[in-house]
Amino acid sequence: MYSVKLKKVTPPSDTVSILQKLSHQQFHNRSVTFMDSRETTPCMLPNIAEELSKSANAITQSVLPGTLFRLNVGGKSYRIAADIVLARRTHSLMTTLITADHEHRLTLTDAYLEESAEYYLERNTKITDHVIEYYVTGVLHKPMDTCTERFKEELDFWQLDYNNVAPCCSIQPPLPKSARDKEDLLRRFSNVTCGEVRRDIYNILEEPSSSIFAKLYSIFSIIFIFSSVAGLILGSMPEFQRDNSQAHLYHMMHQKSTRDFSNKPQKFIPVVESENATNDFVYKPTDDPANFLVVMEYICIAWFTVEYLLRLSISPRKRIFVMEPMNLIDLCTILPFYLEMGFGVFGVNLDRLHNITGAMLVIRVLRVLRMARVFKLARYSTGLQIFGHTLRSSLTELSMLGMFLLTGIVFFSTLIYFIEKDEHNTEFSSIPSACWWCVVTMTTIGYGDSIPKTTLGKVIATSASVCGIIVLAFPISMIVEKFACAQQKSHEESQIRQAHMAAMAQNYFLNRFTRRRKACKEPLASSVRAKLNGHDTPNTNGSVRSIA
């Protein structure tokens, strides 16, 4: 409980003497307290506003550059030259207090101490010492025994930017390159046409947590991505073709029978009984999907196209935008559709491209690129983003893993080749074919398509399997550790962000709806009204005298 003991001053009996005394009174007390008096009459009220205005102007002039601004924080008095604070040219609470008038200061502070002429704030004095030091030296340090989040709260109260903190006491971890690029991109919006609108659209498209509209947009985009991938998958099934009457024949054709003497799997080739009967049953399920799948594909492609063009139109750096990995994925998801449509417009029959060397391979690659749509989920999945960042930061470990595997593959494939090459019906006809067996063995997959027959070959296979486990264990464990650390860091940042938002909301409601004693703009008028109404109310004189 902080309280100020007020000095009782008996007012003169007439208005003229009041003005004379106010004009000659020094403002080291910053206010005059009038006690209730029987001689006080309502006719004195018109002059009170003028008197209070003169008092406020005098207080404002007393803290202009070249004078000391008086502040009391948590019971500790501070004196700081106003010109030093204004020289920092930073928009902060201290700057606002110095440049504001008396009435505005009363709304920004918790109280005004009349005897010492100080504005009172109920804040942490330890951090305030460093804030005052920042205005003097230009360097802001964090107290050693202060929590980082508590320090951030105080900086938010004083309206100081986190970048003002000295590097030795940095409260922000170094931003990754992607975050720095994003900040640089947001700054570039201020230098382009309609930058404000384009930045808002960018936040909706790229930041799902920025607003409710961005969250709804991300939900719709995820629905379209899943619908597109599901349509592509269902379109490969014979049951979802326009003509699905021969779907059962397609499944029969792909059934495997028992192995013959050459240990090769055989297939049942169905016989199609028709006028043009043939045993060569050819069924291409992806060429003619059902109508509803085609319509769904068109709708999804239209959504992806509008999305890509909208991102491109609002980007302030279009050349860099086109070359970004995620935007290349977006382009790959829609490019095959328009290329196939272009072939149809120019009269090119895709079925005739089978006989052109390499042409059908290009078409198949374009169709496979449509599956790149699944990678669009990385825009809205924190886990996928963390995984991608982990892989990029683990290039050293991945290169080490590749070197270990390459060394082991070359070594064991060479051994198994020279040991097994003279055996009857050997499957190790060359070192490259033995490399395939070595890859499958060292990665502990073991398809069983190639099997060593000699005892020494089986010993080498066992050694290759054990070495593969050892080789894979060390780099993968380091990659997993990096992924776990990145995930933990992301979780902590999310918790800090939520706590910060909750604290901001709490401070807003406390400042907006708190039951704080307000300074009276007309102190003598309130005293007169209280006397006339018969209430024994203490005089406020435009300030709050105590804080609970």
UniProtKB/TrEMBL annotation:
A GO cellular component entry from the record: voltage-gated potassium channel complex
| Start and end residues of each Potassium channel tetramerisation-type BTB domain | 70-168
Q: Name one GO molecular function term.
A: delayed rectifier potassium channel activity
Membrane-spanning regions, if any? 216-235, 290-310, 331-350, 395-419, 431-447, 459-480
Per the record, the GO terms for biological process are: action potential; protein homooligomerization
Cytoplasm among keywords: no
Q: Major location, coarse class?
A: membrane
Q: What name has this protein been given in UniProt?
A: BTB domain-containing protein
Record carries keyword Transport: yes
Which Pfam families is this protein grouped with? Answer: BTB_2, Ion_trans
Q: Which residues form the Ion transport domain?
A: 262-490
The record's section on InterPro entries has: Ion_trans_dom (IPR005821), K_chnl_volt-dep_Kv (IPR003968), K_chnl_volt-dep_Kv5/Kv9 (IPR003971), SKP1/BTB/POZ_sf (IPR011333), T1-type_BTB (IPR003131), VG_K_chnl (IPR028325), Volt_channel_dom_sf (IPR027359)
Could you list this entry's UniProt keywords, alphabetically sorted: Cell membrane, Ion channel, Ion transport, Membrane, Potassium, Potassium channel, Potassium transport, Transmembrane, Transmembrane helix, Transport, Voltage-gated channel
The annotated topology with respect to the bilayer is: Multi-pass membrane protein
Q: Note the PANTHER family from the entry.
A: BTB DOMAIN-CONTAINING PROTEIN (PTHR11537:SF121), VOLTAGE-GATED POTASSIUM CHANNEL (PTHR11537)
Its source organism is Steinernema hermaphroditum
Could you tell me where this protein is found in the cell? Cell membrane
Taxonomy of origin reads:
Eukaryota, Metazoa, Ecdysozoa, Nematoda, Chromadorea
